[in-house]
Write a structure and sequence with these properties.
Strand content: 25-35%
Protein name: F-box only protein 11
Pathway: Protein modification; protein ubiquitination
Oligomer: single chain
Structural class: alpha/beta
CATH topology of the domain at 656-816: Pectate Lyase C-like
Main location: nucleus
Subunit structure: Component of the SCF(FBXO11) complex consisting of CUL1, RBX1, SKP1 and FBXO11. Interacts with CIITA.
Number of helices: 15
Domain F-box: 150-196
Distance between the termini: 83 Å
Length: 920
Amino acid sequence: MPSASFSATRSYTRRTRRKGTNRLPIPSRTSNSGGIVEAGVTCEPLVAASGSYATPGGASTSTSFQHVPPYDLRGRKSPLHLHDASTAGFNATAPIHPTATRPTSPTASATASVLQSAAIPPLSQPARKRLRRNTSCTITSSDNSNSAAHYLQCELPDEVMLTIFSYLYEQDLCRIAQVCKRFQAIANDNNLWKRLYQSVFEYDTPLFHTENCRFDFIPFEESEHHNPWKESFRQLKKRCLHVRPHYNGTAKDPVRRMPHFDTIQAALDHADEHLNGGAKIFLHPGTYRGEFLVIDSDVTLIGAASGVVADAVILERETESTVMFVEGAKNAYMGHVTLKFTPNVTSTVPHHKHFCLEVGENCSPTIDHCIIRSSSVVGAAVCVSGAGANPRIHHCDVSDCENVGIYVTDHAQGTFEDNEICRNALAGVWVKNHANPVMRRNHIHHGRDVGIFTFDNGLGFFEANDIHNNRIAGFEVKAGANPSVVQCEIHHGQTGGIYVHENGLGQFIDNRIHSNNFAGVWITSNSNPTIRRNDIYNGHQGGVYIFGEGRGLIEHNNIYGNALAGIQIRTNSDPIVRHNKIHHGQHGGIYVHEKGAGLVEENEVYANTLAGVWITTGSTPVLRRNRIHSGKQVGVYFYDNGHGKLEDNDIFNHLYSGVQIRTGSNPIIKGNKIWGGQNGGVLVYNGGLGVLEQNEIFDNAMAGVWIKTDSNPTLKRNKIYDGRDGGICIFNGGKGNLEENEIFRNAQAGVLISTQSHPTLRRNRIFDGLAAGVEITNNATATLDSNQIFNNRFGGLCLASGVQPIVRCNKIYSNQDAVEKAVCNGQCLYKISSYTSFPMHDFYRCQTCNTTDRNAICVNCIKTCHAGHDVEFIRHDRFFCDCGAGTLNNQCQLQGEPTQDTDTLYDSAAPIESHTLMVN
């Protein structure tokens, strides 16, 4: 047996017939606590067909009549005058369903009775196809009621039936739908149900109550139901009450028996007294002022209006809290309303603990699609407080409040999802005192303070929130707070992105932190957060800024495109910086200054505008196993007493040196590979110190190690090779202790010592050089002790005029002595050096050719090209032959075609000073 659209037990009761009358049977009605009165009938749909059907007494009756096949009414074009009536459902003389109570129309009641009586005879056979209208129709019965039933079921046009049905209430339509398939199609017309639905609930879109504490508007075209209006009606009608302002007391719809009230409190009292909780209270358009609502049961309060529902239903209060949920409201629901708390600012009544929405201990209401506003300059718009407080606040708008937006405290929890929290005077969200909310997909922006503030041991899980354009930081953590912030976007903060201070903690994972006016992340004052797998980029200052004894674990982040350093560590801060990519910064990569420390390991630092790593002013970080490369200046730059350790790093392909050490800096540089520098491998100058031990320094465009201007580093057990210039060059008063190094295959001298320098070389192996092994020139000196110098092209130890080093126990052997061989063979020395090398030998000048001290001529060119000229000996030193190079007026007779001279640059480009110190 097909069931009615509203299920209920069906039974017939016949009224006692009066004498002389023959009344039709009338179905009984049952009340369901103010819900829809459902049909009390048990009947089969009557199928009009040629054949027989069973009477209640069991007799078979033969029928033969015409009918039209069932079809969708909405697809059939109706006559204009009937179509208007069918679609409108009422005319000027017969208005449909008032929004409050509606007297039952006598015509509608009589029609319903006739239609119901036509449904009495149940069928024992399945439905059959209807006959066409032009077929003769006879009913083998003398009962006039059968003729009426036949006319109603078969002959009356659909449009007329639709017009008649438009006068019926929903329970009558459900009964009519059981008569036959034709009535079922007409009674389930979407327009009929839409008008019925909107007369009760007023919504423009069907609202579905799919599960406990969940209501969803689903557009008609997206619904899976054939008749969404009817299905929504079925879901909402049970245990529902209605509140309409100025309704003049409690009343009931005489047909639907839905109680109506003019105050929310009256509806709540009725629900507690008669429905034992679980009631749905629909709040119709209006402003509800002055009611002090304390919800302590599983009641549903939901706005009911057309358009944007919450805009039309407003709950407002000036003292205490507008709505308070307390213990007992485990599964309460409030949705689609506006809550306002508007205290009188001149009032003497204190309101610092009063809120627009308050959720207390041991309750877990659902707050959905609400607009929440508070003009109080103290307190908060929403307060969730106390153990067991665990609301679900979804799709709400908490904006334009004169204080905090959402305040969660005192061990409270709660789930806050898809809310709009913006333009509040103080923080968008406060979390403190061990509160632990879950906040997902919220939009927190344009606050006049911080976006989210966790403090005083606050916790919380924050996921996929969009936090931007707040006046202070997007997210602030202090005083033992320990939130988890995952997959959020924190950007365009007017100060910074994330600010962790005063012993703050927290885990910040997989976030996008960008375009903030100051640092993307600030860590200070003994705070120790974890910053992991974030994209931190395009900051107007730095990426991560750690200062004031800050700590923290900074790992697996992608930090790029920031205006200042990608990571800045200062003032006794000591973070762990690990596995990050720090690149394409407009300043440097990592900047450690003012006694900063930290462990910086296994990062990739590259393509930054200034130094990859800056270490200065007493700082002592440890850099281990990093790849620092492709910078537009220096790789690692120690200056102004920068210290620390540089261990097992790969430092390569910088426009300047791989490492620079200056002005009192004294780092330990051990086990690194330093290569591909366009201005040398390591430059130590201006009083720089340092210990360079067990490094590989190779393939640099200029010297592997430069030591200049009173610098005094220690080089032990390094391999310095394949340089496109010298191995180690010591100039301008440079010193240094060079011990047990292997210096080989360099294009210029293995060790060049010049201009007042005085290093000590002990137990080094200097070999396979493409020029000399060791050259000392220009008033320099050195101590050479127990070194091995062999297989160098120009010679082993080459000393310029006047040089008197301390030499003891050295082994100088198997050198190729190409200079001496060229002299003996009568060759121009330019033949073996071109303009890239500087062989050491006797050089002359020619007064006849008017050469100067800067124009050197080798001994063979003096003998051949300048024979008979007035010549003089200059000194034994490093030069290439200008005669062979073609720079003199006379063509060299020994060299052949002249070659254009190009001087080799021996000095490093001056490092560019950081602007960070000036900014900070």
